[in-house]
Amino acid sequence: MPLESLIISLDPESKNINVLLVHLDEQEKKQCIKVTEDGLRWLQANYEQFVPLDDYVTLLSGSAPAFVKVNERATLLKLNPLSIEQQPLEEQISAVAIKPLPCQLTEAMSFKLRCNHCNLDLVSQRSFSCIRPVPKHSMQPNKVFFSENMRPLYPSQLYYGLNFIVVNACVLDSGYKRCNERIHCNRCLQQLGELLQFQPSALLFVDTICISNIRHLDLRMRKYIECPLQRLFRPLSATQLLLRLLQNATPNGPDQLRIFLKTVDEYGQLQYMLLRVDNRLRHLLRPKLSHSERRELLKEKNKALEQATQLMHVINVKSLLARCIRYNYFRNDEQLSAHDEMIQEWRKVGIPMLRIAHDMMMTLNRELQSNMYWVPELEHPLPAKTDGRLSYIIYSKN
Length: 398
Known about the structure:
- By secondary structure, the protein is of the alpha+beta class.
- It folds into three domains: about 1-100 and about 285-320, no CATH class; about 110-230, Beta Complex (Metal Binding Protein, Guanine Nucleotide Exchange Factor, Chain A), CATH 2.170.150; about 240-280 and about 320-395, no CATH class.
- It is about 20% helix and about 40% strand.
- It has nine helices and 27 strands.
- The radius of gyration is 26 Å and the shape is elongated.
């Protein structure tokens, strides 16, 4: 039953539609998918599937679809619609926005900050009377937030962003060691952050810090617990991660952005991810069916064929936005060494290296891997060949 797992890509600029049919065998192709003005139909004996598309496109009824066999598991159906409705696509774009970082640090808390490797104190027990997010979703406070024209950062202030906090350097204990602009733990020597250029301020990576001795000043409640500081920043979806990273991306010509990500896993292994993000948004249509609904569909089909009763099932689609990304992920010393020339090239052209937590890197990688197997088929013809894998990150509203 090919229509229950189809994926449709709309291109308002070229006015083309690519319909990817997964697991479509030759027999199903012969039974044929029929194009009508309001959607696509597939008929087998007395069982019919119908996908209404009239909210998004107007098709030429009776037009002969052009099948392009991409590989053994997928067939591409290329259509030229009479028109593509712009309004629902524009509404989809406006519905995707950056949400506030879910931070549980508050002015009503007193706490210590420690190195998460060796437990050495970095910030003694204290509270901050002003805890705010960094403006403009920046991951480069040196350039955007703290400048020569900004007022000084006071010891009572704490700002936070994606995997970092910024405090006045005077609140740091003697548990750190300075190496140029980098801040290292004085005991285990892991890098904890960096000193900012224009002010006596320190940026600390959230994934290198533990928070302990948490006290709630206004509730007479004390929690003498210790946990990674990351736990006070709830996990972000791949959508929210990408939206924030795009605010810090580097243009690479008119059609592409580049993002250079760095992380360190729990064993101290350095990892890089290099992203080339297409500027043009992809508009996708996919069935709204859940796994249980797919199983019910199969039961209905088998029952209809056995009993020779006429049955039509309508499969509604939902509109999604996606970014096409070609990426490289180097997760061990062998891969880093083998691709050192590429890494150095990205450094030489001045692409800033953005440090994120390892679980954030895993979130991005899972999303990219899950879409990697059907995106190259949908991007037909393929974009110009470069190093890396091709995939999508599909925007989610949740």
